[in-house]
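Annex B, item 7. Sequence and structure tokens for protein A, then protein B.
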Amino acid sequence: MTDKTLHIVGGGMAGSEAAWQASHLGVDVVLHEMRPKVETFAHQTGDFAEMVCSNSFRSDDDEQNAVGLLHWEMRQADGLIMATADQHRLPAGGALAVDRDAFSAAVTEKLRARDNIRVEYGEISDLPADGNWIFATGPLTSPALGEAIARETGAERLAFFDAIAPIVYADTINMDVAWAQSRYDKGETEEEQKAYLNCPMTKDQYEAFIDALLAADKTEFHEGETATYFDGCLPIEVMAERGRETLRFGPMKPVGLTNAHDPENKPYAVVQLRRDNALGTLFNIVGFQTKMKYGAQAEVFKTIPGLEDASFARLGGIHRNTFMNSPTLLDNQMRLNSRRNLRFAGQVTGVEGYVESAAMGLLAGRLAAAEILGLDLPTVPQDTAMGALIHHITGGAEAKTFQPMNVNFGLFQPVDGLKGGRRGRKDRYKAYTDRAKTEWSDWLSNFA
């Protein structure tokens, strides 16, 4: 293979991070993005790394949380996504949330400023026979490219449905009813401790909300589509269908919160809203992904105390997410077994979440650059968060039941001598993260 250029298809989290990593290792990159020439129903802009669903990168705790550890590993690798997220951070308790528009605009600007990254707009609809390629086309892979992947792999595309939570204008939230507080007052500053708005419900209000939710008009699926959801992003009405109390033990749980307007009475359920932009003018309803039709959404959500007069900057939606059966198709370098010049990264490989997608982009970019540059790299250590994820999607998972996965400590190899169970969890998680940090730093030293 004489061509030393790396082509990356898709300018989402994974593709953006892959381009950044390969570029900084000295490889020439062509970043192919079909938007805005070819639009999707979920994206609003042509910017790179657009955040379609939530504006949160989840927990930033790198000692007791697997996704926080992944944040740490990406920062150690000079990751574009983490550096930009830190620059556009919003108060969110112990989570890392960002101003989504400013974040994606900054990622776009940084990638465009790199001398050895060229951006080409237009759809790639087939798998190239030669050259160095990373496909990071995400869950909204175009139908034509999806069909090309299916033809090459001989496997049917796997799909699940992912839902988008609504966004509310802050000045339409009734603060005589709602109050500002992060769960368990998490955060180092008062701003962090009051990063969420909370709308309380009595038992009667909760029961009426569940009734309205179950009765609302829902989006119908196209003929032949199967509605199999990723459990980490279930529509609220699907949760309600599993049992009337399910939401009260999920996104509407009242624990760790005290109603500032009525501290003596504990709410039966609480709807939380998280700040969505730096101005504080937009809030998204946490965990409220939905497949309700637009008219039904406005009607049902306005039954929530504090949201009676709410105006919505964006209502929820639902879309099909495409992913590959990666354990049967990819090697441990993220290359397609049948065509070693093609790598895949991001959600199309079966990882779930912004952070996990960007992390797999980071690895794909570095692995592709190392191959182009002739570097002999050891395998990514399985005891790191990066290694646990790549091991899972390239062989650790059971292929017959393969489903999208967030990073979690269940993917990590046990540490000898530590007891299991809930009581030993804090020490066990700290041991996982300490071990991972050492091994990740050692692996990164191969690029020095």
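Protein B:
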Amino acid sequence: MKTELHIVGGGMAGSEAAWQAASMGVPVVIHEMRPKVGTFAHRTGNLGEMVCSNSFRSDDDEQNAVGLLHWEMMHAGGLIMRTAHAHRLPAGGALAVDRDPFAQAVTDALTAHPNVRVSHEEVTELPTDGHWIFATGPLTSTALGAAIQAETGAERLAFFDAIAPIVYADTIDMDIAWRQSRYDKGETEAERTAYINCPMTREQYDAFIDALLAADKTEFHEGETAGYFDGCLPIEVMAERGRETLRHGPMKPVGLTNPHDPEHKPWAVVQLRRDNALGTLYNIVGFQTKMKYGAQKDVFRMIPGLGEANFARLGGIHRNTFLNSPTLLDERMRLRTRPNIRFAGQVTGVEGYVESAAMGLIAGRMAASEILDQDLPVVPQDTAHGALMHHISGGAEAKTFQPMNVNFGLFRPLDGIRGGRRGRRDRYKAYTDRAKAAWTEWLHAQRASRAAE
């Protein structure tokens, strides 16, 4: 009987890790506490449930590091990316999905796999034997978090991740708003009109900022500190950093023309992105918030086009737990003090659905190779996966370690490529070409190794 691999957590990382290991012939047990033990952010017991945005971000594999990560995962037979493409929604150049069918399809694929079984119970301790991957994500349970803290001897680090509100599409005033993707991105009409845009004049923007700053906010619990991750700041925190911050962030008006008033450029624009296949729900892009629910309704209905909006879900914010991975994990994602345990996903200090799933992909392959006594080549640092791996396993400064999205700043420099903004397009293409070649070679080496056995 083959040795089992135990995976704690059935989110993006845990689901991908299970799929990769099971596909290599290793029996996998997914320990997912939902629905027996819920969280404030999840609604179902499905694997791969999306609790924040429904977007996997850019799908451009030549000019964007996230898109490159998509490409690498697809070529590695990744379940998350394959399922995302099967349930994608129009979103300009982004890969957005219909969240409920997506999670159901991930669940169906894993439960149908002959090498996978799912156990619904809460794991509260770190096991001393067996092969384990902990992919419990930002909502690691209190008991398990305490066990991790006791083992590592370090205080748990935390930032606050936030949930954007969702609006019913039929309550948006389309006599004010219009459909357009920024810079008309997309190959189809549906892609080019994937976003709903709500324009603001300077006076409306100033009034909105005043209301946002004055609104009642949810208080932090005792002992918590607001160590926000800069890639997912609540809008009120952005506004506190300067009145123009939002206008140069999620409310930037560039690349858009209001057909209701084409002669006047909006001072700011609020974008909403389709959240389901029916097109009945739209989420307000970048509008994570810690405002109280009543205040959210009042402030968001100040947005032109949303004066009569009804909300399917209001915004929220939660503590997000992650390890100081450079000090705690080795180059194969194992806990240094207990090498039978690997960590994967957001708990390792990567940020985002795609990055979490990517770390699950690597952890699953590493654990399966170890169980099968197969040699797994080191993940090439010049790939998107390798760049993230290098960051969390020692490339980042441990004293200031913070969660990180994949970006070209994590990649080793290229010789002979022009720097600066003018050389950016050629430089990014060179990064992605180099990464694709290295990733392809890495995958071929594994296939050749298995074939030789």
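Comment on protein B: The domain at 5-159+320-452 is CATH 3.50.50.60 (FAD/NAD(P)-binding domain).
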